[in-house]
């Protein structure tokens, strides 16, 4: 695997030590399969891209409830929209949630 860097709000750094398939479970039970997940044991947080969410057939919306902003993951079944996950936002505009790893297949350098 070639060395890769990741750009985040704190800058760009080379922290990737492997890549592979991962299946994660979101708090309300939604499974997300990521074909090319990047592995970084040094990083304290996991990042989930809108691309990975949409490639699993879900849609993304933002919602304001009073002074709170949320990111909603929705699915459409038989013409009906259903909210499957809802994540609150930090004051910085980043959304957060807890995830569980179900399955990972990583190739590490």
Structure notes:
The protein is mainly beta and 109 residues long. It has 1 helix and 8 strands, in the order ββββαββββ. The protein has one helix at 50-55; strands at residues 6-8, 11-13, 18-25, 31-39, 59-65, 68-77, 80-88, 100-108. Strands 4-3-8 form a 3-stranded antiparallel sheet, with no helix packed on it. Strands 5-6-7 form a 3-stranded antiparallel sheet. A two-stranded antiparallel sheet has the order 1-2. A hairpin with a 5-residue loop joins strand 3 (18-25) and strand 4. The longest helix has 6 residues, at 50-55.
Top keywords for this entry?
three-stranded antiparallel sheet; mainly beta; single chain
Number of helices: 1
Averaged pLDDT: 84
* Structural class by sheet pairing and helices: mainly beta
**End-to-end span in angstroms?**
7 Å
Count of beta strands: 8
Helix content: under 10%
Report Rg.
Answer: 15 Å
Major pleated sheet: 3 strands, antiparallel
Strand order of the largest sheet: 4-3-8
Shape: globular
Low-confidence stretches at least 5 residues in length (pLDDT < 50)?
A: none
Hey, roughly how much beta strand do the residues contain? over 45%
Series of H and E elements: EEEEHEEEE
Number of domains: 1
Please describe the topology of this protein.
Elements: E1 6-8, E2 11-13, E3 18-25, E4 31-39, H1 50-55, E5 59-65, E6 68-77, E7 80-88, E8 100-108
Antiparallel strand pairs: 1-2, 3-4, 3-8, 5-6, 6-7
Task: Describe the structure concisely.
The protein has 109 residues and is mostly beta strands. The protein has one helix at 50-55, and strands at residues 6-8, 11-13, 18-25, 31-39, 59-65, 68-77, 80-88, 100-108.
């Amino acid at each position: 695997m070639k060395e890769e860097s990741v750009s985040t709000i704190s800058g760009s750094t080379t922290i990737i030590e492997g890549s592979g398939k991962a299946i994660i479970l979101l708090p309300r039970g939604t499974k997300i399969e990521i074909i090319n997940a990047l592995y970084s044991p040094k990083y304290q947080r996991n990042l989930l891209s809108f691309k990975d969410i949409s490639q699993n057939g879900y849609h993304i919306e933002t919602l304001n409830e009073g002074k709170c902003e949320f990111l909603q993951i929705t699915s459409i079944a038989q013409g009906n929209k259903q909210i499957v996950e809802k994540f609150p936002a930090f004051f910085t505009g980043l959304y957060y949630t807890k995830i569980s790893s179900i399955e990972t297949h990583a190739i590490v350098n």
